[in-house]
Write a structure and sequence with these properties.
Elements lengths: L3 E5 L5 H10 L6 E6 L14 E9 L5 E14 L2 E13 L8 H13 L7 E6 L3 H7 L8 E14 L12 E4 L5 H11 L29 E6 L2 E10 L5 E7 L1 H17 L13 E9 L4 H15 L5 E7 L5 H4 L5 E2 L2 E7 L4 H5 L15
Parallel strand pairs: 5-6, 12-13
Antiparallel strand pairs: 1-3, 2-11, 3-4, 4-5, 6-15, 7-13, 7-14, 7-15, 8-9, 9-10, 10-12
């Protein structure tokens, strides 16, 4: 008889899920967990328009010992509006790792997948998590196929070191409701040129837009060349419904942390946060430039940093390694959180993965992970 019970979570499981998430730290030199209080399900909203939480309980105690998220989101795939899936939130309590629980979890996930809503999923795996990378790509015990789509460069840039905005011939302004039409038209035109770029449309039922949870028009920074809109980047504060918490460091890094922080304060590099702290973060969203011009992106990211330096600790941004804008991101000193982007499918979705146009650069934002 099985010692475990898999089920789809409901709001009645909120407290159990919050407690489990607070203990499920990510492996690596810098150890993090996601604080999803006060509402676990609200914290999922950036992952997709529809979300499900698969949880596993130990039958003997009733405690949550594993979770996994399945989300569905609408984005651009091969230049067309397409619904795809996203897998995230995969956590297993330490005593239960290494057994058959992972394989059984994927069997339960496959049952959810049988509703036929999407053909394939995206997911990311931190590059430092070599054990997970090896296991999930192994294809053992009827797990789905993981197809590597390249490195997702992610940087947490300290805001306090960038007080002055970069100067150029471009004008940068904050968006207002009057900018809804030019912004949506710009994203409708430029978004399909990126693989998996989120779709944003005007929606009269939602005050003119369908912006993600807690993202407002005033959070958008717009770059103008004369009267022409040439670039967009939003600064998304998710702290009201989810935030990263530093749980600790690998022993070697914990020992070196005081010396590293002293050197960082002298050289202007970011310091390593205190364990137990939750740095205030902005996530860069809907970053899109006319003709992928790095100079436009440089101006916009500079504008975000200059306005955030007295308010937030970090600006977190992610770009694919093939994105022309990545050269700008890599010039900033910041905490590296790079991962590998994968497309995931069971046999019925392999054809969809193989049809992904490799000429289009993938786009996946840190705030949606």
């Amino acid at each position: 008889m099985s010692r475990f019970r898999f089920e789809t979570a409901s709001t009645a499981d909120n407290e159990s899920l919050l407690a489990f998430a607070g203990q499920a730290q990510m492996p690596g030199p810098l150890r993090l967990c996601m604080d999803r209080s006060p509402d676990y399900f609200a914290s999922q909203q950036p992952e997709g328009e529809q979300t499900q939480v698969l949880l596993c309980r130990a039958k003997e105690t009733g405690q949550v010992i594993a979770t996994g998220h399945r989300a569905m989101r609408t984005c651009w795939v091969n230049g067309a509006v397409t619904k795809i899936g996203f897998l995230g939130g995969l956590r297993i309590a330490q005593p239960y790792r290494g057994g058959t629980l992972l394989c059984r979890g994927y069997e339960a996930l496959k049952e959810l997948h049988s509703d036929g809503q999407v053909a394939f999923y995206l997911t990311t795996i931190l590059e430092g998590n070599r054990k997970a990378l090896t296991l999930l790509r192994s294809g053992r015990c009827r797990m789905p196929h993981y197809v590597d789509l390249g490195r997702l460069i992610c940087r947490a840039i300290p805001c306090k070191h960038y007080r002055t905005a970069h100067t150029s011939d471009l004008r940068v302004s904050r968006a207002s409701v009057s900018d809804i039409q030019p912004v949506t038209e710009f994203l409708q035109r430029e978004g399909p040129r990126h693989q998996f770029f989120p779709r944003l449309v005007q929606d009269s039922a939602h005050n003119g837009n369908n912006l993600p949870h807690d993202l407002n028009w005033s959070d958008f920074h717009l770059a103008w060349s004369g009267s022409k809109l040439v670039g967009i980047a939003a600064a998304w504060d998710q702290s009201r419904f989810r935030r990263w918490r530093v749980t600790g460091y690998a022993p070697w890094l914990a020992m070196l942390r005081p010396a590293l922080n002293l050197a960082a304060s002298i050289t202007g590099r970011p310091t390593l946060p205190q364990p137990g702290s939750s740095p205030s973060c902005l996530h860069l969203a809907f970053a899109c430039m006319h003709e992928n011009k790095p100079d436009i992106f440089r101006q916009l990211i500079s504008s975000v940093l200059s306005e955030a330096h007295n308010i937030h600790d970090y600006l977190v941004a992610s770009l694919h390694e093939r994105d022309p804008l990545a050269s700008v991101l890599l010039k900033y000193n910041g905490v590296s959180l790079d991962s590998r982007l994968h497309a995931v499918a069971w046999d019925d979705g392999l054809a969809a993965i193989h049809s992904i146009d490799k000429a289009l650069v993938p786009h996946l934002e840190s705030g949606s992970l």
